[in-house]
Amino acid sequence: MLIKLAQALMTLREVAQAVEVDPSAATVAVDLFERRGLVRRLPHPHDILTDPPPALAALDADDIAALTRIFVTLNTKPEPRTTPTADSN
Length: 89
Prior knowledge:
The structure is a single chain. This protein is mostly helical. The chain has one domain (8-74). Helix content is 49%, strand content 0%. The longest helix is centred in the last third of the chain and has 14 residues, at 61-74. It starts with a helix and ends in a 15-residue tail after the last helix. This is HTH marR-type domain-containing protein.
């Protein structure tokens, strides 16, 4: 199986099919491999998402920083909320 993966560049969908997992599982695995320096991701030449949409490309550094903070907040596990009890009043 590893030989097949090493023979040529593959899309994530092709990787998933080769190892018989869901595409989302392949994405998680490739993300881990990339962080460890075991694989390198390249944009697909026909991928329309390689260039940001014009509205996103027009954002300045402050807007990008604000957007990044929003995404970090959305992707962070929220702290459990504590609800006041009758004893706490």
